[in-house]
């Protein structure tokens, strides 16, 4: 177990618990016909979370300081895909489902392993058009269709 | 007698052509999910909820709920079948409940008996599925009748017991499991309070008034979290796949595995009924049991057929048994059943003692479809095992970005806001980080699903008692449940202090 990570987490959970406690104080204290208002449950939970975080913080003192030898991580690949996914979500409603899904998949496939581009293009086009056709045309679902300036 | 007629009605529901199709799709996808190393049963079921929601959109609410739960449950036990395939052929378990199967399964494969091992696993799973089904039919009615007598205080305590059981057994650190549970419960308070109508923790963000959608959280934590891990850790599935060879087991194989299958099924079923124990523990227990019972314990680990038959029966029995607390008490005992429960709630079907009265079509249709699904799995798996073995070789290059795209599609299709897609990505990152540092994710989802019910019952009990918190210990049933919950946490703690190692459920 990682000492630093758990300490950071414990402090974060402590803050979350405290936040919920403070914020639930601002909620109404009673509901109509009941002495128990909507504030009670979150307040108690916040308190329990604070106590548990303190417990975790104490437990981290007993962790053995492990020599941290991390195997190499693929940060570059991961970041490219993450940014691509964020752009995918952000632009989906303006540019449309089919185009954004296609672009995201091509970028994703090529980032995972550089290979022949046409294969990635075929799979990406197949998926994005297939989902759109099945879901929107056949099942009458709602997806952002094509770029807004086209319509 | 009435149970029997209800069961027949259930078969009528399950045998409708579209439900047969749904069961078939469910077990097919489930087996695929089980075979693919990247996604386990939890993320498989979570990913498919939006897909089923759109597939069933033309049906009446009751029918839609029955059909989609049939499909989702099919995924659940289909994955149990599929998980064994990779254990045997690749020596890498598809999910944690098949870890033990690698011990003898892979050895059998090396001796050229992979086909037999796969067949025995399928037969064992089938028998266990039937045992679990019979147990479900026998226990469902009486258990829900008991639970019908429960008032809010008893319900509250029962759910505390459920939480205690799952959190007590999940992961390496109990503190972390509890933190996750409480976080799940806290997240469930976001949105409009359904007693008073007060907006809680929404900060005028209109998307938050409906609360955090459980689906977004579950898909993010489980499916995306695992994808992120596979990308970052550069996980590849390029191991050597063993030759399958002859599939039909010989008579002596069957004779040797009959006992282990029977014991494994029963043990698995009862382990599954207990909340928190689940399929992984069941498979471990049954392996240990077989080793003790066997006349040749030295053969275990060297390709003993009992070492495949018992755990594979046990994990399937457990997944059937886990349906009992879910359907009769409304308490999910594991991450996957929590997600199934969330799916039912999405359809406005509340699992619990009233389920059998209010939605008999859903409850009995599901039970009957489990039988049909098991038959399908047996038929599907024996001849098609070679096809499924091919799926293992799906390159991660395509698989991982596609899972992200499916998650985004699923969440957007149900919620129709990009806010939820961002939330999905955020929970994916969180899920990766938490899992990486041994914070179990299942308790969080469980807390999120059970949160509103726990709060409602607590407030109803307290309203009735005029705010007196002693009401939970004054009612005898409630007190007993709370004591069991307390023991569930305290006993492992004491054992740990005494230096005994306890088995924990890694998959939770």
Automatic annotation (TrEMBL), chain A:
The keyword S-adenosyl-L-methionine does not apply. Residues 8-144 form the DUF1468 domain. The keyword Nuclease does not apply. Pfam families: TctB (PF07331). InterPro entries: DUF1468. The chain crosses the membrane at residues 40-58, 78-105, 117-136. Keywords: Membrane, Transmembrane, Transmembrane helix. It comes from the Bacteria. This is Putative tricarboxylate transport protein TctB.
TrEMBL record, chain B:
Residues 20-446 form the DUF112 domain. Keywords: Membrane, Transmembrane, Transmembrane helix. Pfam families: TctA. The keyword Transcription does not apply. The chain crosses the membrane at residues 20-49, 69-90, 116-140, 152-171, 177-195, 207-225, 266-289, 326-350, 362-381, 402-435, 477-495. InterPro entries: DUF112_TM. The keyword Membrane applies. It comes from the Bacteria. This is Possible TctA subunit of the Tripartite Tricarboxylate Transport(TTT) Family.
